[in-house]
């Protein structure tokens, strides 16, 4: 089975490492400036340039049996053209919907799945009216595209923060990177108790399997760690999480792995965002589930039966290993490995805050896990 | 961490695939004619030739941090010379002991661990006396070296089979491949109930972790499938298995993964043979244990803490996928994948009886597992 992947980051790396044992072959499509260290050695790389036709890309990738993506920020028209040559999963239409927050929220709301109250505004449209309509401050403003890990987001909780956003908007609209149209959504800033995420896979024949929801902790928009199962998640909330992802997978005819991030607010579960791909909050599945999200994504897109998604006993933790400083040296922090921890290292160059790897922790209980988290927090300072 | 592996077969492949996620780098030492398809793409390959010094080999392997082996049939003098440059685990001395059945049995017996009664004979020494000393027919004669998967073994249960062996011995001693000295061991053919194996790992600091013993079924000397845990293994037998491997690891100062195959005969547990490496009967650990034998071998030889060896709940099966005919086409039999099965494919050319891959099966109970075995037995005929 030959799989072409759009993107050359750690998600592509882990997809390839999940497929190699099964005898799968991989090729990767890189943007003009994209670093490829993560996937070096795992398959051939085609570097996209503006002169390439879809046929060139398909041939360059070695005529794969199927093409998939490791990110939502991709060239959707190209993906659509590639469908002439082989299946592209998830379908470019669903990637197109999710890569824009306006379309994404419209999709979720259209299925009757709850979201924080939101409004959209464009260009120089007044934002104050939209804020009033969703119930006043505090709110979060997000650009509809190109937002990830907290980028292009503004928390507005005062006249001052609103004015600061307005100034930045004006600069953006006049700046050299201005494109038409500029669009933002404004969301009620939910006083949520916590964030959970749920990951599921659907195969072309309609089979759906869902992983145990986990709880995520962020710092400045970047995932720090996840705990699986999400501690003390009530039965009704658990069922809601499963119901949301089931409907999203089923109603959109989705193929592959989908991730859904949700806010828990009392007895309410509100969708925050979707990712049409394997997801950071599912990295625990490599060591903590019968079948990893990466293997299940590959099984789904190649029409193989999905693998069991049951999580192992005990409590599972996932900790992102973030770069501390600039360094081209990418030595794996082997010293973090213990009897119950599993290191996954991406071979990247280090930059402050960059995700360089992660550790999965298989613990007996939550107490043992939080001990590991504490130890790791201190140990992280040793990462280059 | 850079690891050099002597050998380019499926065990090297699975070692590399276990190390890549941790950021390990690999290089492989191939015999002059050794096929390398299993490890293609997973690291650089050095092909041994008679002009090479140990320094040449070490440099060719890219100055690894540690060197290990995927088979016991290796050039031990070369391994000893490589110790000048980096650690070689397991130690060449223990590989040397185990690569010869006479030395192997002497080692096991020396630790007071039970074996089938055995005798050794060389060249044209009379075999009848040895047979009488160990209690008469039936016996098994095995050459002391170069025996694996049933090769170079003779079951002697009658005057006719003994005469046939004598003829073959005479031919061997006169043949072009004759080397000095020829040596065989003759073993009482135990009317054993079944064969189990136990796998353990020891790190340089003396930490030892042991996997759950499994039961193995062979056909003409080749492992067909394993079931883990070994069904209905009594407490005392279970403890004996753990005790044997613990003593072997501890008393020899072993570093890495060791496999011990044993015969169960009533309440007795007799060692059949050792393997100073990851072992076919441990392939289930990739999907069925918290840490695979491959990752634990790498952890051990790089002085990292061993990973938890607990097996997952339920019953785990491992089925070898054997080639049916000659074919250079090595298409993975994806059709064998189900929700509870995991395919591991080695990318080899197919030959009748050759191990081309294996399937791990995670089942609820033994009944479900034997259903899978039956299905797979039929499905195997479809493998190239």
UniProtKB/TrEMBL annotation, chains A, B:
This is N5-carboxyaminoimidazole ribonucleotide synthase. NCBIfam families: PRK06019.1-5. The gene is purK. SUPFAM superfamilies: Glutathione synthetase ATP-binding domain-like, PreATP-grasp domain, Rudiment single hybrid motif. ATP binds at residues 101, 142, 187-190, 195, 218, 272-273. Pathway: Purine metabolism; IMP biosynthesis via de novo pathway; 5-amino-1-(5-phospho-D-ribosyl)imidazole-4-carboxylate from 5-amino-1-(5-phospho-D-ribosyl)imidazole (N5-CAIR route): step 1/2. It holds the Pfam family ATP-grasp. Catalyzes the ATP-dependent conversion of 5-aminoimidazole ribonucleotide (AIR) and HCO(3)(-) to N5-carboxyaminoimidazole ribonucleotide (N5-CAIR). It comes from Endozoicomonas euniceicola. Residues 105-302 form the ATP-grasp domain.
């Amino acid at each position: 089975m030959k799989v072409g992947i759009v993107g050359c980051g750690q998600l592509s790396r882990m997809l390839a490492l999940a497929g190699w044992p099964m005898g799968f072959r991989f090729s990767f499509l890189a943007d003009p400036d994209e670093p490829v260290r993560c996937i070096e050695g795992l398959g051939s790389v085609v570097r996209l340039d503006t002169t390439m036709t879809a046929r060139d890309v398909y041939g360059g990738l070695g005529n794969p049996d199927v093409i998939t993506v490791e990110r939502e920020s991709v060239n959707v028209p190209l993906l659509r053209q590639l469908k002439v040559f082989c299946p592209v999963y998830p379908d470019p239409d669903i990637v197109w919907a999710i890569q824009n927050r306006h379309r994404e929220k419209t999709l979720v709301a259209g299925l009757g799945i709850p979201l924080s109250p939101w409004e959209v505004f464009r260009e120089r449209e007044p934002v104050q009216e939209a804020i009033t309509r969703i119930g006043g401050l505090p709110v979060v403003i997000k650009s509809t595209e190109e937002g990830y890990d907290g980028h292009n987001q503004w928390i507005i909780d005062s006249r001052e923060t609103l004015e600061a956003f307005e100034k930045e908007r004006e600069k953006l609209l006049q700046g050299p990177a201005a494109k038409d149209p500029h669009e933002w959504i404004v969301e009620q800033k939910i006083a949520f108790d916590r964030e959970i995420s749920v990951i599921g896979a659907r195969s072309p024949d309609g089979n759906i399997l869902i992983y145990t929801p986990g709880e995520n902790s962020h710092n400045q928009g970047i995932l720090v760690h996840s705990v699986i199962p999400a501690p003390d998640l009530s039965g009704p909330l658990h069922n809601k999480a499963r119901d949301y992802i089931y409907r999203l997978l089923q109603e959109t005819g989705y193929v592959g792995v989908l991730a859904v991030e949700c806010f828990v607010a009392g007895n309410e579960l509100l969708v925050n965002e979707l990712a049409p791909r394997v997801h950071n909050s599912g990295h625990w599945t490599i060591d903590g589930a019968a079948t990893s999200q990466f293997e299940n994504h590959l099984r789904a897109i190649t029409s193989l039966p999905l693998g069991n998604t049951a999580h192992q006993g005990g409590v599972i933790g996932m900790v992102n290993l973030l770069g501390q400083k600039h360094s081209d040296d990418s030595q794996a922090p082997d010293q973090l490995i213990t009897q119950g921890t599993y290191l996954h290292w991406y071979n990247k160059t280090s930059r402050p805050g960059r995700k360089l790897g992660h550790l999965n922790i298989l613990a007996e209980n939550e107490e043992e896990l939080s001990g590991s988290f504490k130890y790791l927090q201190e140990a992280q300072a040793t990462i280059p």
